[in-house]
Amino acid sequence: MTESLAAATSRTTIGEIFHDLPDVDQISAGEFRVRWLKAYPHTAALEECCILAINELADLPYAGRKANAQVMGLAMQLLRERHGVNALYNRLPAMKRLRNQSNIKGSVSRGVS
Q: What is the pTM for the complete model shown?
């Protein structure tokens, strides 16, 4: 876990944590195997969608790993909507681990599954 994630408080927002950086490793809290991105043909589109997701969720409180899952899920949704492509298959297990390891109940989302 990065220092910024570890130091987050309940008053910290998603935008403050991620700073519009499309860092998939930070967004996934290390749960996503980023080495697989080397062979992924849609990396630029994925980075664009990560930035869009961060911007859309920026004002919401950062609720730990559950917020990471929200950003990741919205980025994947935007990737499908805007570019008609799916992300790498290991994104779903990573999102599930993020959601399950969170002790925060409930979530604020944009229809992210």
A: 0.72
